[in-house]
UniProtKB/TrEMBL annotation, chains A, B:
It holds the Pfam family RibD_C. InterPro entries: DHFR-like_dom_sf, RibDG_C, Riboflavin_Biosynth_HTPR. Residues 9-185 form the Bacterial bifunctional deaminase-reductase C-terminal domain. This is Dihydrofolate reductase family protein. Gene3D superfamilies: Dihydrofolate Reductase, subunit A. PANTHER family: BIFUNCTIONAL DEAMINASE-REDUCTASE DOMAIN PROTEIN, DIHYDROFOLATE REDUCTASE FAMILY PROTEIN (AFU_ORTHOLOGUE AFUA_8G06820).
Amino acid sequence: MTQLLKVQNFTVSSDGFGAGENQSLERPFGDADPGAMMFWAGATASWPNRTDPGGSRGLDDYLTRDFAHNIGAEIMGRNKFGPQRGPWHDHEWQGWWGDEPPFHTPVFVMTHHVRPSFALSDTTFHFVDDEPAVVLEKAREAAQGRDVRLGGGATTIRQFLDAGLVDTLHVAVAQVQIGAGTRLWNSPDELDDRFHHDIVPSPSGVTHHLFWRR
Amino acid sequence: MTQLLKVQNFTVSSDGFGAGENQSLERPFGDADPGAMMFWAGATASWPNRTDPGGSRGLDDYLTRDFAHNIGAEIMGRNKFGPQRGPWHDHEWQGWWGDEPPFHTPVFVMTHHVRPSFALSDTTFHFVDDEPAVVLEKAREAAQGRDVRLGGGATTIRQFLDAGLVDTLHVAVAQVQIGAGTRLWNSPDELDDRFHHDIVPSPSGVTHHLFWRR
């Protein structure tokens, strides 16, 4: 059984950025407005961070509903874990994701500054300083036959795309411009030589781009 | 936790029919061409009846991928089980679905002619002569907290819609006319007074209609 590497529910601006400049503890998306990016997902019944009942069950919900489906591990860049740069100064701080992170699997954080693994609820964070192919090998082993989610940010997804390791991508394009930051692409069409590509406008206003390997 | 009653991947013609007239053992869709109805689903990687590897992983695949997600039981009309009418004459014949039916849960077949339950692999068929609300109660209990799929055909879905029991529907409209048979609707808009409604044209040529309760 193939273990896919999948990008899911990753949102970029109409000018191709996953986050703005000047990321900080208070501003995980930097100068970009997280609400303007992620509103489409937060409105769905299946959004993993939803705390109250209700939510939509239309097209956007099929995308968020698939978030954990057959996923056994996640790979993320350091900036999705936290805003710090360089050596860690505070091992007490355990990332942006709270006591009950939405991953519920092993998570591999890519960083040049490794630190000891730790668990929060049923999510375990591992810190690895390896090239993408090696990180993927570790994540696949941890996933025990299930697929691996490539969680972002844009820089991390680019690394895996450039190494030819990504099997499927779901990227939502929001109708907001950021102007500068971490870029996924200049245009979604850049991937068309290597991927099939469905373009699906959603009633919510975002456009879903669904790619799978040719 | 709410147990939803869900219609999934149900396909109708552009004139609103789920199957044509003259259903028989050889022609489960009657005078309608099953290929012209179900091609969109059969082309996806996640189609439950797929036997070879490959298949698309775009929009249509999100719909078929969701088929078994959190589903604990199915309800179907007798004509989805087999073409016979009236009393059963042959208990040896165990339905259209082969030795390895794609349901993998208890299945409740609605019929005025009950017969003993039997299992094929991990699917168990039960035969019930009850009104929709009672059948749903039995299916919910069998589903053990998970959701219940309402499998069709059109007549059965209409019964549950008319009783106000359906929570979500995914109906794919194929660009084919049947002219006569079992009708789901005259137009998808008929449900708009009771349901939110996303209309999503697929690159494959079908249009997905996604409904959830207001």
